[in-house]
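Anyone able to model this chain together with phosphoric acid mono(formamide)ester?
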Amino acid sequence: MSSRTQHSILDLVSLEKEKIGRLFSTADQLALNPFLPSKGFGKTGALLFFEASTRTRMSFETACAHLGVYPMLLDGKSGSSLEKGETLEDTVLNVAAMKPAFVVIRSGDDLDFKALAAKLEIPLINAGWGKKGHPTQALLDTYTIRKHLGKIEGQKVLIVGDARHSRVAASHLELAKKLNYEVAFCGPENFLPEASEIKVFHSLADGLQWATVAMALRVQLERHQVKYSLEDYRKNFGFTFENLKALSADALIMHPGPINQGTEMDTDVLQKDSRCQILDQVSNGVLIRQAILLEVLGGL
Ligand code: CP
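re: yes, here you go
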């Protein structure tokens, strides 16, 4: 690995625990002052979002603004030469040839981030890669848990919903081993991961009684061959006031977004349950992503 690409974040298996601690400390400092001195002024950073995003894309844009970095933004495929048949990989290589300080990419499984990172001379940050992983989301989630519950070690994170198709769930499985928290899944059978060693709850009430953090995922019904009634889903696995009675008063309610209100989470819960920290997750996303970019740019 060259010194220029050592700051790539493709997954959480290869991110050292010590570096995660450093990112969290930098995020703590940024929470007090987001305009810490940076070596970003006059530099560019490429933000290539080949798939839709609101939170991740705009938090990286905000982080760039705080750091004085100009974001070279590709937002979706329309309006770029992808429409003329240029490949995703060639698009990335051509943008990288303009010498940004880093490239942040969201795409489907059809782009091989690992092969691409080996060809680049700049760090590549995974901003959501197909079903494989969403490392910055898991980092901001754990940062949020640490902020509200004091520590991440020993927490019991129940991920409810479409874990089988979720890159967020995949990244939490990686991060849990590193930061010593437990992850369990709950949902209809065909939403659950297939690996046998993963802890699952078939009853939401049982899972919520176990959990210190309850995280709902977006139901991705478009991916399922066997359709599940949304009404049944809400009744059995939805975060409704009624269902959430099983969750401790001290626990956190989270969601990476976007939310299908009235399916995996009721609007009332989102707006009125004091355990809900979903908008704080979004605020912390800016801090974590800015901390990552600060490291890429050469630290504080
Ligand atoms: N959580 C998340 O990745 O949201 P966006 O798709 O809006 O970026």
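The mean pLDDT is 94.
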